[in-house]
User: Which sequence fits this backbone?
């Protein structure tokens, strides 16, 4: 690990002033950044601790939800408002990592976590994301975990977050600040595709910090949502494929509105609004859900080891929509009292 200086900011302005130096990184829970520093993948000369800035709120705001960037994943997922009004988000967060990690991991850090591509972590290998211009050995190498959509010649990495898949489905907004002001980034525009600059994960600019995330009111989806995560182990494993699905249904099972975002398949949570629009007015059922899956996966391409993700993603989308249609308590595995069944 490279030597680095460490400071603790006591207010947002002090943190933003420290971030004017491009070699300074903010540290929140440290669960991703410190691993990357230990492997010399990231080598900031200075860390600024942003844990004590009063940005740890989880609260209702303007009919929706406000999540502080420094609120912990566990506090967010178990917050009564999130559990009751945003079960899709709660379930997705709880599908990630382990209880210990979720106690440390912050919401802002979750959005900013970096890919789990093995070459990215191994400084003895080439990797365009870590060292632009060196190549992408994953295309013909170890790509079992990697992307099938939105890839480029330069990079086929995936974004590993579970929380972000639900936030994409729920049309969240990321609120950021720098010394020059504040701006809001629609979640769809926060993460980016790799193109020929895979070293850039997202649209956060140098000197900017995430302050909070807002999620609009989504009560019509409370009764019918599901997060399905397919992985190698039941705990402590990143998604091979995950799906956040939410349905708004008429009493007779006709679809009024649908949301579907897919994780583990691209450099950002993958959502195709045309597939959701095509579901409106249809009856719930396998035929409609398969059609949505085909639309979402149009253009998907495997690279050998990850070819299995094409049928896996199709089946996971159908399963998530089917589970959502049956009802949220069923999807959450809860009994009538709201306890884990
Ligand atoms: C073994 C293991 C298993 C895991 N499994 C999963 C999983 O299954 N699903 C999943 O979703 N995640 C998983 N994770 C990832 C975990 O969720 C992230 O490491 C965590 O969310 C990062 O949050 P943090 O607060 O620790 O970020 P840090 O490690 O402190 O920071 C991460 C990055 O974000 C930047 N950053 C932090 N806060 C801000 C901010 N407010 N504004 C701008 N930049 C910021 C930092 O500079 C750094 O670059 C796993 C992690 C580990 C170690
Ligand atoms: S897929 Fe991306 S992160 Fe992985 S080796 Fe290729 S360039 Fe690096």
Assistant:
């Amino acid at each position: 690990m490279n030597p680095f200086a460490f400071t603790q900011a006591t207010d947002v302005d002090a943190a933003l002033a420290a971030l004017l130096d491009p070699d300074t990184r903010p540290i929140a829970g440290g669960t991703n950044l410190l691993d990357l520093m230990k492997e010399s993948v990231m080598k900031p000369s200075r860390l600024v601790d942003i844990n004590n800035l009063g940005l740890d709120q989880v609260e209702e705001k303007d009919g929706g939800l406000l999540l502080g960037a420094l609120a912990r994943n566990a506090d967010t997922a178990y917050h009564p408002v999130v559990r009751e009004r945003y079960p899709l988000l709660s379930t997705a967060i709880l599908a990630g990592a382990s209880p210990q990690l979720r106690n440390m991991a912050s919401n802002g850090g979750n959005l900013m976590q970096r890919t789990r591509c093995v070459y990215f972590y191994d400084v003895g290998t080439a990797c365009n994301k870590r060292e632009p211009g060196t190549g992408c050995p994953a295309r013909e190498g170890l790509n079992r975990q990697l992307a099938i959509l939105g890839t480029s010649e330069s990079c086929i990495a995936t974004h590993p977050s579970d929380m972000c898949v639900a936030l994409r489905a729920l049309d969240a907004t990321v609120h950021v600040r720098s010394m020059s002001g504040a701006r809001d980034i629609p979640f769809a525009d926060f993460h980016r595709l790799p193109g020929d600059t895979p070293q850039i994960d997202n649209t956060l600019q140098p000197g900017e910090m995430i302050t909070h995330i807002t999620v609009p009111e989504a009560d019509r989806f409370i009764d019918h949502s599901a997060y399905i995560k397919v992985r190698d182990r039941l705990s402590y494993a990143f998604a091979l494929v995950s799906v956040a699905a939410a349905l708004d249904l008429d009493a007779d099972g006709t679809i009024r509105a649908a949301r579907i975002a897919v994780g583990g398949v691209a450099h950002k949570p993958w959502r195709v609004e045309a597939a959701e629009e095509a579901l409106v007015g249809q009856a719930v059922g396998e035929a409609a859900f398969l059609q949505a899956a085909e639309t979402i996966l149009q253009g998907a391409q495997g690279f050998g080891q990850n070819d299995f993700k094409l049928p896996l993603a199709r089946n996971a989308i159908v399963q998530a929509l089917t589970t959502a249609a049956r009802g949220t308590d069923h999807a959450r595995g809860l009994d009538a009292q709201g306890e884990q069944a």
